[in-house]
Amino acid sequence: MVSSDQRRRQLAREKYLRQQQRREEAHKKAKRRNAIIASSLAVVLAAGAAAYASVGLADGDKDSGNAASDAVTPTPSEPTSSPEPKPAIDAKAKYTMSLKTSQGDISIAMDAAKTPRTVNSFKHLADKKYFDGTKCHRLTTDGIFVLQCGDPSGDGTGGPGYNIPDENLTALGKAGADGKVTFPAGTVAMANTGQPGTGGSQFFLVHKDTKLPPTYTPFGTMDAAGLKAVQEIAKGGVEGGAPDGAPKKAVTIEKATVSKK
């Protein structure tokens, strides 16, 4: 017999899945609309393409054939439609996010005192099994060195329907002349859309020291075994031999939990 508590959890899960389905449908409509707009602009863009190529790439960009994009940004999806979850953690405590993946277990230490809203969001999503069964969709092996996860759609466009603010941005020190700081191997940080306060559910695991602008919330550190697992994934490379794309060793988060130490 199903208990009343189990029934409540089942109803909550069904409601959550319906919300996700509505957001996905809205996103598909937006993509179709954007495709129509793009086709109408194609002639104009084609006229300027030759001139653009003759002067090279814009400052800060890199040739995608030689290096990974110097950004860790999910494609902006549909407008946020849900409120940020209410605080439900001990902001003075430390938490552990445990990821059971198809390529090994990863344990991530998180300090709620430094990133309370980020930790609160991950606890909220993990409790709802949001990450379970999702793929780590992006691996970069040149220029920047990260494995990016947390997108339920598996293509870099998904999110939980709300945003959380940036936190702890000064933790890695002062930016150098290039405007960047070093994210040490083992760091776990939030992806965003390139604009402040646009974190959602996507995050990245740094498998080798990486220089990036200090605009990504560093909220955790992998244990030694977790870092080794991610480095093994990186050694496998990217599908098609590119430096940026889906990892050859497919990575699925089978189960994610967040617990207080």
UniProtKB/TrEMBL annotation:
Q: Does the keyword Isomerase apply?
A: yes
Q: Where along the chain is composition biased (Basic and acidic residues)?
A: 1-27
Sorted alphabetically, which Pfam families does this protein's record hold? Pro_isomerase
Q: Which UniProt keywords apply?
A: Isomerase
* Superkingdom per UniProt: Bacteria
User: Which residue ranges have biased composition labelled Low complexity?
Assistant: 73-83
Single GO molecular-function term?
peptidyl-prolyl cis-trans isomerase activity
Q: Is Transferase tagged as a keyword?
A: no
Q: Where in the numbering of this chain does the PPIase cyclophilin-type domain appear?
A: 104-258
What is the uppermost EC class here? Answer: isomerase
Q: Which residues form a coiled coil?
A: none
Q: Which SUPFAM superfamilies match?
A: Cyclophilin-like (SSF50891)
What EC number(s) does this enzyme carry? 5.2.1.8
Region annotation (Disordered) ranges: 1-33, 63-88
What PROSITE patterns does the entry give? CSA_PPIASE_2 (PS50072)
Q: What does this protein do?
A: PPIases accelerate the folding of proteins. It catalyzes the cis-trans isomerization of proline imidic peptide bonds in oligopeptides.
**Could you identify this protein by its name?**
Peptidylprolyl isomerase
Which species is this UniProt entry from?
Answer: Streptomyces coeruleoprunus
Highest classification ranks of the organism:
Bacteria, Bacillati, Actinomycetota, Actinomycetes, Kitasatosporales
